[in-house]
Amino acid sequence: MKKRRQDPRPSCHLQLQPGRQSRGGPPRRPIEMRSRRQNRPSCRRRTPAAFRPGDTLRLGNPSRLIDEATPPLTINPMMHTDLIERLHATPWRGVLAITGGGSGAIERLLTVPGASATVLEAVVPYCQTALADWLDETPARACDERTARQMAMCGFERARRLAPDADPRTLFGVGCTASLASSRPKRGDHRAHIAVQTAGRTLLVTLQFEKGRRSRADEEGATAHTVVATLAQIAGVHQLDLTKTPPGIEASVEDVAAPAEWVELLLGERDVVTLHHAPAPRGVAVCLFPGSFNPPHAGHAAIARHAAERTGRPVVLELSITNVDKAPLDYIELTRRTHALAGQPLWLTQTPTFAQKAELAPGAVFAVGADTIERIGQGRYYADDAARDAALQSLAERGCRFLVFGRMADDQFAGLDHLALPPALRALCDGVPETDFRVDVSSSEIRSS
Questions:
Q1: What stretches of 246-402 show up as alpha helix (H) in DSSP?
Q2: pLDDT digits over 413-424, tens only?
Q3: How many CA within 13 A on the CB side of residue 340?
Q4: From CA 31, how far away is CA 17, in angstroms rounded?
C-alpha cells in the first residue's frame, strides 16, 4: 500500500477503504483529518460482571493456551508473520474498527501477503464524531468495554453487507478502543478493550497497563499484538495465554458462545426465542411488555403486575436484539440481560417496530411508557406520514392496543393525557391514571448514577 504523505495536521479519522458506505446510505468521501484533542469524560476501568451463565461463558483456560498470542513488551516488524499467514489461510473475513490505540494491527494484517482474503475493510474512527458515525450513536464513554463490543457488532453487520454471498458464520467484526500513554498525563487508567463479534460468539479482552512502566509505543504495540492474537483465536489458529502476560499488564477475557437459537435470531433465520416458560408467539393472547431492561428495576416489576391485573392476561417481557437507533445486542450483553430477567417469561425477538411485534402477537396489549408511545407517533421513525399511518392501521387491523403508563419527564409527571398523539394512535391507547400507578425510577437514571 502506498504510504500517505506526512501531513503536519494531527490525524483524526483514517479510512483504509475510501468511500465507505454508511449503513443504508450512498458512498461518501472519507472524513477530513481533524484533531482529536477535545475533552472527554474520564473512563474508569469496569470489571466484567461476576455472573456464571452456564457453559456459554468461558473466562480463559490457561491449560489450552499458547505463548505466541500473549501481549509482548514491544512489537518487532517480523512478529506474527506466521500467525497472520495461517489466519489469512482460513475462510474468516471481516471488518476492523480501531480507535485510541492498536491501529498497528491493521498494518500487520495488510503487510502480510493474502490480506484480501481476511480484511474486507479497516477504519480508524479516531475523533468523537467519527466514532459516533461508526456506531450510529454517541457512546457514553469512548474507551469502554461496551463501546468495544458495539464497535465489533457494527463491524460484523458491515461485513455482512460487504460480503452478502459469504457464509455469515465465517464473518467477523473487530472493535478496539484504547486510552494509552500520551504527551499529557492521564487521570484514568491506561487500558484497551478488544472485542471480536461473529455469528456465534462474542469475545472480549481487556488490558490494563501499569502507568509509567511503558512508553506509548510499547502500549500501542501490546494492544496491536492482542488485536491480532484475539482474531487468531476466533479463527482457530491460536489461543490467548493470559498466564504469559508480561509484568505490568493485567489482562482479562470474557467469551460467550451463543446457543444455536440466538445465532439463528441474529442472522434473521428465526423471529423469536422463548425463555423462562414464556408462551409461544401467535398463540394465547398476551400482554407484551417491550423494553431494553438495562437494567431491570422495581418499576418494571410493578408495571408487569399492574398490567396483568388490568388486562387479565399473562405478561410476557420482550427484548428485541435489534433497535431502530442502535446496533444489535452482542452475546455478552444479551447474556447479562437475560440472566437479570431470570424467572420472568421472556421473548427475545428481532422486531424493533411495533408493526413487527404485532405480527408476532396479534391481538396483544402492549404495556408501554408515555415516552415510548410518544416516539411511536413521531414521524422521524417512518419514511413519511403515510408510512406512519399505514403502520398504525396494521396495528388496528391486528387488534392490538396500548396500555400507557405515565412517567417523569423534565421534572414533571407525564401521562397519556399530556401527550399530543396522532388521532389514529390515540384511538388505540388506554391510559393508567397517576392515582393508580406512579413509579419515579428509570433504567437511564440507574445507569447514570
A1: 260-266, 298-311, 331-340, 354-360, 370-376, 385-397
A2: 878 888 899 999
A3: 19
A4: 12
